[in-house]
Amino acid sequence: MDVPGFAAQVSLDEADYFLSTDEEIQSTIAAHRDDVYYLEKIYAGQVNYSIQDAYEERDRYEELADPKYIDPVAIFDTMALTVIHYGLQVAV
After folding, report:
1. DSSP readout, 20-74?
2. Overall pTM > 0.85
């Protein structure tokens, strides 16, 4: 499975980090692996907020205020989808 919208700033290492540190994300992706619509259209927003929380915990405030990260279909949205698609690969 290809990871759509894969920006240069988004790596599978980061996706792996979020999956390994957030068991709730990992278990939700596994539980809904047959419902890609839910994961991509609804759950991606929750993953996005989790990613932003992780950036805040790491004091990466510049990214949290940067439109290229926070605007719709920007880096955080791409990262959320990357985490979900990587999680689907791991869950299979």
Report:
1. HH-HHHHHHHHHTTT-HHIIIIIIHHHHHHHHHHHHHHTT-HHHHH-HHHHSTTS
2. no
